[in-house]
Amino acid sequence: MRQLLRGYSWKENMLAYMLLLPSLVFLAAFTIYPIIKVVDWSFYESAMGIKHYVGIKLYERVFHDDVFLKVLRNNLLLAIVTVPISVLLALYMAIWVNNKVRGTSLIRAAFFYPTLIPMIAIANIWLFIYTPDYGLLDKFLQLLGIDGPNWLGDPSWVLISMMGMLIWKEAGYFMIFYLAGLQSLPKEVYEAAEIDGVKPLRKFVSITFPLIMPTTLFVLVIATTNSFKLVDHIYIMTKGGPNNASNLLLFHIYETAFSFWDMGTASVLTVILLAILLVISILYYGILDKRIHY
């Protein structure tokens, strides 16, 4: 180690450090410091603006809270369902629009368009779609002679309805990453496969999918992170109801912090959220990264 430090020239790398300094300052100010502060607050209970150190008491209270357990279960279920479906749908759409067919540009724009719409606008659009009796979805079902449920008022359907909206919004966004990955693949490999008479399905399984695994890993991390940071559409559409059936972890943190002004519990919930995302990222990179050829 000492030999490495002796051969390291700080003067030669000073320019690189100076260029990185603004980013490091913003990273420390808006990421590292808030994380440290949240962890610190999670050990204090506040009352009338006065903080009292309580140790892990708030953690014990949170893990015995039925509302938190239900919210956590909702969020995990949402991630388990929407992430693989969104990723697979995005890959299918990317392969489709990557082919040279008539109207490809229009199809790409149609797939990507939901990503450009603000989440508040999307929530209002789907609020109209899910309106009982008069909504677009119920009108379509009435043509088939089917009576639709109360999509946002029935605890059995509200989370499923949220999943449908999230998949619709996220798939087009992930498609862009897959499309970029597909267009960067070496054409020589596919030409050799065509000469050997490899069928399309075999070509996808043996060539395309392994080569876009780096993109898949990136998309999985982004998709999982997005599934845990949903607030806007819940605030507009359901407020977490009915009976917390559509409540998710980040919205629960928002309510705890800014509706009940319980900063200690909100900090505990934030630490738990960060821990979940950290564990998921470690699992992704620990398991998938070893099976990826860059």
Features of this protein?
294 residues; mainly alpha; two-stranded antiparallel sheet; 14 helices; 71% helix; transmembrane helix
Q: Give the terminus-to-terminus CA distance.
A: 29 Å
Low-confidence stretches: none
Describe the largest sheet.
Answer: 2 strands, antiparallel
Output the helix-strand order: HHEEHHHHHHHHHHHH
Tally of contiguous helical segments: 14
Number of strands: 2
Side by side, the strands of the main sheet go 1-2
Q: State the helical fraction.
A: over 70%
Instruction: Provide the β-strand percentage band.
Output: under 5%
Structural class: mainly alpha
- The whole-angstrom Rg is 24 Å
Which oligomeric state applies?
A: single chain
Categorize the overall geometry. Answer: globular
| Overall pLDDT confidence | 87
General description of the model:
By secondary structure, the chain is mostly helical. It has 14 helices and two strands. It has helices at 2-6, 14-41, 57-63, 66-98, 104-116, 119-129, 136-143, 158-183, 187-195, 200-211, 213-227, 232-237, 249-258, 263-288; strands spanning 44-47, 50-53. The protein has a two-stranded antiparallel sheet with strand order 1-2. A hairpin with a 2-residue loop joins strand 1 and strand 2 (50-53). Helix 2 (14-41) crosses helix 14, helix 4 (66-98) packs parallel to helix 8 and helix 4 (66-98) runs antiparallel to helix 11. It is globular and about 75 Å long. The mean pLDDT is 87.
Brief write-up:
The protein has 14 helices and two strands, in the order H-H-E-E-H-H-H-H-H-H-H-H-H-H-H-H. It has helices at 2-6, 14-41, 57-63, 66-98, 104-116, 119-129, 136-143, 158-183, 187-195, 200-211, 213-227, 232-237, 249-258, 263-288; strands at residues 44-47, 50-53.
